[in-house]
């Protein structure tokens, strides 16, 4: 098989699907080449917190990217629902970042101060106020930051809605498609050779998560690696929590539709397996019950793991390949892939199609820093 | 355990969940007693067609019930989404009832005429017009009735949304709760004895589908029985059909969100098993491909069966028990349980709470006809 | 449908399947009537320990029953493999009953003494000897009883092998068959009315676990009830334990084929749900890791619950119904259903077919004690 | 991570597991490096027919390999059961290769003649004799070859038993381990770089099925490719067939333990997806019912697909890499991977460890023919 496209997107996770959606919506003929199934890796394993403020405490390009991306979701979700009938279950009831010790409370109060500079809705809640905000939270906290704008959604549904949104705009989806290598014409990338045949295009984006480095030699193998996160879900027919509960260390309890809560996540660097260890489950349940005691009686539903792609400096690689003109990269979003997917897809699509960059801060994420060792 | 409620609903299918939702929304304290899991029987196995006109061709109480019920869904779906975050994927793109022979075309044209008397949007489509309305339909039809108002949704999600909507209004849900028998106080039913203890209430509704007769002696065992329906689903990453395809014999292809189609259903009376036979799958696939040839390449997803409760005259039993003042029945909806759930829940809740009946046609569904043998 | 059989077995758990197997092997025409699927309740949820000595410490009829039953398994397993090709994975590598405190060690040493009277292979192991016997056991024990004859097997496979063994001998299996009530002819039970029609036979056995009382009025509802047990399984590609690890409180870790271990079980009386609670999983994992530390890294596989039928005095009901000549009961085996299935099936079949009772101790299990309140 | 082994086996399918088992049994320290899970590709998707004679009609090296391999199974299965407790459900009740037209009958009678030269147990059965041999076979055949020695087993269980047999002999198993490339020391392969770190060894075998060519440049990409096979399974509680039913075109119905039958397989070359198409299921069911009419009522269980690695001349590549001294290949077994696994593992292990080749015919399978284009 041979086929020509305006753009190829390698990797059908949320980043690839978002970019393909934007490209096809702009009228370009796009193919998504996915080695397994759409959304089968980190994108489908995430908890879906749109934690722009929960996850990022420092002002700078990453926070700007995150806050802009978060703001895109209400409209994006509505247009995907319209086009694909898929509802991604966006819930905007806010997040509590809880202090479990006095020391943590001091740290979090400082963070709350900082956040209030750019978002006056952020508030520090006393232990009593935290209990009032979320009655099922243990009364034994040391207070919490209330971040009302950090919503959440169902990541696997978002990924499928983006891919089917691309389909709606005439994109093609190839699953179980193994990309072997680039096809060059006189040092210029003109396509890819795959298990499903050759695909030709002048624009190729690689958004293959932790596997991106297998295709892109410019990334040092040690500079992009998975951090495995293990999660579980519980269900209940009792009243459940309404707000996302979040700890600074990266632990969270996320209330989904229909009485489900998602609890995560461990962090195991360089582990490519999807096993969920016995001790991980014990840790997640024990921590969840200490924060929301009524979860002790909730029903166990399932356990899973995702391999979140991390870079050496913690920032994603976004933008044009430093040496190959027609190759673009978008990978390394670590825990923020879902949150950042909305803006990443939009900016990448614009860049690939030669639109003048509107977002100067975006250059901070270029792969050049990898080449130059400037982090 | 002993507990007192304003009303008990026995059976957590779509009818029970809908009634419990309406009762709890009216402010009553309700418990749903479900022998297995919410929505685990016919409600979760349905295809979810809101086929008021596709399923019913005769004017009369059943058609009136169906058309009124269909009209309630847009608002109901929106309020459930608001309260539970569950989207039931209501799709309102219409239905084509297709003629596959000239004889069928004659019959369907007559039916189209009749429907047009009360719905001027119904139209008869020539074979070419049918192909234009749904390009993936085989061109080899003998025409089709276009019924634009018959929508569809995800039945399991509707059932869960109704049950969680009841939960939102402080109802209690007891799963794996076996109801052994009524508790009488001086010939008056005052509660039920169950595997989870005794529940007391002056109002008891039984909406246990084909199992209702095990509890309600007034129903002759042969007058309420399951008609097993076997279904399959396929998925595709190719463009898929947009409209529900329906044959007069009760065969259908229903396009769901995300490239899924549901294909059903066989009819096996008196079969309580949930097995899906090899020949049923062969029949469903072969028929589906003959109508929509591109489905040949769609991916098989799964097969399942539901036991749809049928009555001897084909109409549901709705209303007060003829001999037990405090006992109400709502069962026997056969293929129309999802469609009729919206209005059934509303009217049953009103009746149970003594509201003056607004819908005189509703008396046609009383169990008295069973007692009197007047059908 | 109407059908005549030599014997009807109501309940397709391990007890019913074993009796049906023995009856059909003796040449009788048997039908198994099962409300859901063969082995879908407690029989399929058990861990499969043949713990004649691990579970029972007192001499008497129950121990005699258990030891005789355990001795039947090697031949039974071989003949089922021959007839059905199903291997039930019988493993006879013994069991360690571990002391985790000094007080427990004292109790267990006494028990070891007692057991040695009738089984000289039983030995008390010092902490060092226990570690040597099972190197993956934590060295921090207070010793253990070694019971080399208590083997284990896969309970769901045993149940299916027995049912298919009955099939091999021309028995009939009806799944999803709801038995409504007995059919009497002049006060004599002559059959049962079911959702699949009427079945006639002069011999009816009820082996429906915790649901037996729904059919047999002679059993007081409070005298036969489920004790829910929650279990999990882990898998590993590392070397695993070889011996079953058992605590006197009823906790166990059972090594299965292919690197799987089954860990159980909680005890929740009167709970008919199959939910597995978050706290149960935390408890099971935490206890398992404290005994076998290397399990911390094993992969979580799944969680499940079974409703084990318990009687008020802890002994099963076995034998003829005290008032209905043709009705037999075999239920209430609690945690010992798998272990006792071999002998129960054999003796029940003999009794039903009028063979002279060979086992006088068997009368201890008659339902009369229920009627007479003599426990 | 860095580790040294006596031998590395890349690919944890049945061929890799068998070789690792034999190597570790010989006392060598072995690691299996598997990109997903043990047995997750073609090995786990096969039907498990040991069809030495059913599949191969020409005398020559392939038939010799197949017949020798088939003869190894009874002992292999017994030793794996002993070491791992895994029973692979070897059934040796023979196979009927059925003629469905007169023309086929003529072809098959010739084949039967040929087979009888080296196996006098092979017989040609008239239609009546075929019906007698397998009473559930349709009487409307044109006769059948009876091949009593072609048995069958459960392929996923065999693969796991081999891997756990290797574990028993101290081998290590790495799942989710992506092998990136060989590590060379002065043109000699000394190990592999993987996602789980570097592994060093002087002996490396690649048995990665259709993916082998991604690692071994000497194989032309077009000379090793998948032929997707789609299968389904049915179950029944009725008496089922005893013998494997086989058609010359490669269609089969295989009776497994416990009333299960496996039906396969389609053939789709160059298709890397695991989708099972609607038309494939229709084809398999319709063909199966035409041969064994009672299967019409059997219950559908599941559908799956496997990617069987095929070579350009239809023979596997077995032996040393023509240019890299320390690299061995075993791949391309197409439909015969399970059958050939026993002998392949044995001979490959012997070759890798420098044992003098005992089987001169084995040289026919060398990769040299690929290099030299001598097929």
UniProtKB/TrEMBL annotation, chains A, B, C, D:
Entry GO terms, CC: cytoplasm
Organism: Priestia veravalensis
UniProt-listed InterPro entries: FAD-dep_OxRdtase (IPR006076), FAD/NAD-bd_sf (IPR036188), Gly_oxidase_ThiO (IPR012727)
Molecular function GO terms recorded: flavin adenine dinucleotide binding; glycine oxidase activity
Enzyme Commission no: 1.4.3.19
Biological process (GO), any one: thiamine diphosphate biosynthetic process
Superkingdom of this protein's organism: Bacteria
Pathway: Cofactor biosynthesis; thiamine diphosphate biosynthesis
Entries under PANTHER family matching the protein: GLYCINE OXIDASE (PTHR13847:SF289), SARCOSINE DEHYDROGENASE-RELATED (PTHR13847)
The UniProt record lists the keyword Oxidoreductase: yes
Domain FAD dependent oxidoreductase: 6-350
Listed name of the protein: glycine oxidase
Catalyses which reaction(s): glycine + O2 + H2O = glyoxylate + H2O2 + NH4(+)
